[in-house]
Structure formats: structure tokens, C-alpha cells
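Workshop exercise sheet. Pairs work together: one partner reads the sequence aloud, the other fills in the structure field after running the prediction. Swap roles for the next sheet.
Pair: D.N. / O.F.
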Amino acid sequence: QVRLVESGGGLVQAGGSLRLSCAASGVIYNANSMGWYRQAPGKQRELVARIISGGSTNYADSVKGRFTISRDSAMRTVYLQMNSLKPEDTAVYYCNVVRRELNYWGQGTQVTVSS
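Structure field:
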């Protein structure tokens, strides 16, 4: 079983920065991808950024140039560095791991950006 625990959310003013972390435990070797999604009130969950198994990355257009996804060498922790935050980035951010066509999710961490 895979367990994902996020940390690093909080309240920040527009223009500020936050760094989210997601620690993975359990069997995650050969994961297809590790990444971050977010869900704002009344909206669908959307991809923010992910790292594919070969190391390539995908970003939502809305965060390109502001957010950076990375992972540690053991590939058990994935980070999301968020700079130049905007009020529209306010959402619950979820860590996601895809392995053998199964999706695993963390419990989510709230990010609130005040104007």
C-alpha cells in the first residue's frame, strides 16, 4: 500500500512563496508519475505539475514559470516550489502517485493566497 503525506501549506500574501512536500511510504518503486493536483472550491481537481518516470515534467499553463516540481534522489519525496503566488492559486493541494495504473492520493494541504 502507498501512503502519501503532504506538508507545507499555509496562508501567504500575493507575490509570496511556499514549498510543499509529499513524503511517500510503501511500495512506490517504478511509479509512473509523482505530482501535485489542486482543487479550489466549486471547481474540479486539476493537474498542477508532475514528474514522469523518465524524469520529464508537465506543468499547468497557469503555473509555468512560477512553480517548480522536484523529487529527492530516492524518489520518495516530491516537492512543489511555488513562487509569485496569486489569489487564484488558493486551493487544496493533493499529492498524487500513479503506479501500475492505480492512483494514490494524499489527504491534501490547504494553500491560501491573500490579495
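Discussion prompt: The longest strand covers residues 18-26. What would you look at next?
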